[in-house]
User: Fold this.
Amino acid sequence: MPSAAPATRSRVSDAALAATLFACSFPGSAITFPGRHPDLPWWPGVLLAAAACAAVVRRRSHPRGTVTVTLACAVAAAALGHPLTVLLLAPLMVALYSLAAGTDRRTANTFAFTGAALLVATGLLAGPDGEPLVLKLLGPTAWLLLPTSLGTVTRLRTAYLDAVRARAEHAERTREEEARRRVTEERMRIARDLHDVVAHHLVLAGLQAGAVARRLPSRPEEASRIVADLADTTASALRELKATVGLLRREGDDAADHTRSPSPRKTPGLAQLAELADSFHVAGGVHVSVRTEGEPRPLTAGADLTAYRIAQEALTNVAKHAGPGKAEVRLVYTDDHVSVSVTDDGGAVARRLRHPSPGGEGYGLIGMRERARSAGGRVRAGHRPEGGFEVLTELPLARADMGQPAESGTSGKQNESRPA
Assistant:
């Protein structure tokens, strides 16, 4: 029942409109020019006006039929000698407006120009002799094109509003989905940070604890120094873990300020590779050399952090799987990207090659690839033919600074730091 209420209101309003149009067209149907059929009865014009107004009731469901009936009535009235005034053409004008508002522009224009041509031809052939020629030509054309144009404008405006409403509804529907997607991405990012921080420091702490156990009986002084380094390692792990987990407790501008903090401990980058290499040498006996090729160029903050974390995770895997040995971090700068490769000489990797992990690729390599993709780069990892393992990362450089050397960079083709 509620769905029938709008249809009932539409029928009532159309009936009221038809009655109003008849009240307007009745005087027009009774007008004739002097000297033209003085004995012409009044009732044919009234009947034609009534038929045209009655057809307006069906203008919503049958717009083309309504235009056809009202046009036929208007042509018949013009043939009887009635002047084509706005009163007489009112039903046809309403029908043309409804047709233009409910159909396409081509259909509305076809009916409008066809009706204007028929009315002008009928007025020229059967119209009153005293009527000016300009009125016979311009009057019907203007009165028919005006409602057609208004109906077209109404249709276009309605279509625009419907499109705006549809976009708003679509945005409302997808807002919750977008929020869930962002929450998932943020969780993945924090999970990668936690994995990198915890894995790196736990591996270093484990290596230092093993070194203490080996040196304590014969070299207690060196063991005491390693214990101090172990305390620094655990304290650094707690600081970085606190900073990472603290992001979950921050909101709004506080979190943004945290990510923009210039503190090296909170936002490490390639500038801290030497310190990272020293930490592996002190803790696990892995001699790490850092070599730079090309002219160093600036990276975006996200790419810089990504490169550091990937190198950190790769060296952690070296210390965990290969054991004491040699490793190399090689930075290669080109015009549009930087390559970061981490390789080791094998060490205990031979055992790892003969007995590969049944679980396949671990979370470390998965996290490296996810980090690289988030910064617009890629990661390739695999065993080297000459032995050992290699992790190669390619990241884009900052576009705003592309082609400009970093202020703190060196100008030589190759710069090799001391082995850590």
Q: What stands out?
A: The CA atoms of residues 114 and 165 lie 36 Å apart. The longest strand covers residues 325-333.
